[in-house]
Amino acid sequence: MDLIIEMGTIDDVLLVDASTPEFEQQHTQQSITARLNAKTSLILVAKIKGLVVAYKIGYALSENVFYSWLGAVVPAYRQQGIATQLRVYQEQWAVNSGYSCINVKSMNRYPGMLQLLINSGYQIHGYQANEDDKYGENGKILFIKKLI
């Protein structure tokens, strides 16, 4: 697998989102731009033979805290370590940019992501309940990883 990780664009993100069944509502150029507006941000993409197969987006919450907001891997390319490589690249970029920790949120309905975070040294830091959530699937689990 000839994987290349590089800076990407919102258009790259939207291409991957179109192939990602977990996202009930698709992100839009406007929604992503609004979230990243006036923040230091990073959009990473993973390419195989020129095809964008994954992405990871994050942005600064403060001068010390970076938030890993969104990420996805096209289903046909999962279980190949691509998400891990994107995570490692993002963490190294954050260290090099002076951040001391990374925050991320996930949900119980994404067990693969929960496992990836725990196995990668992220610690549970809190929980945000969702009032419409009877079974705990849509509440957000907050994770934090100290970088330095």
Describe this structure as you would to a colleague:
This protein has 148 residues and is of the alpha+beta class. The chain has helices at 10-17, 29-36, 82-96, 111-119; strands at residues 3-7, 41-48, 51-60, 65-73, 101-107, 123-128, 140-146. Strands 1-2-3-4-5-7-6 form a 7-stranded mixed β-sheet, sandwiched between helices. The longest helix is centred in the middle third of the chain and has 15 residues, at 82-96.
Main sheet overview: 7 strands, mixed
Order of helices and strands: EHHEEEHEHEE
Oligomeric state as shown: single chain
Unreliable segments of 5+ consecutive residues: none
The percent range for helix content is 25-40%
Total of helices:
4
How many beta-strand runs? 7
Overall mean pLDDT stands at 91
Instruction: Give, in spatial order, the strands making up the sheet with the most strands.
Output: 1-2-3-4-5-7-6
Report strand %. Answer: 35-45%
Q: Tell me the radius of gyration.
A: 15 Å
Name a few traits of the molecule.
single chain, 148 residues, alpha+beta, seven-stranded mixed β-sheet, 4 helices
How do you describe this structure in short?
The chain has 148 residues and is an alpha+beta fold. The chain has four helices and seven strands.
List the helices and strands and how they pair.
Layout: E1 3-7, H1 10-17, H2 29-36, E2 41-48, E3 51-60, E4 65-73, H3 82-96, E5 101-107, H4 111-119, E6 123-128, E7 140-146
Parallel strand pairs: 4-5
Antiparallel strand pairs: 1-2, 2-3, 3-4, 5-7, 6-7
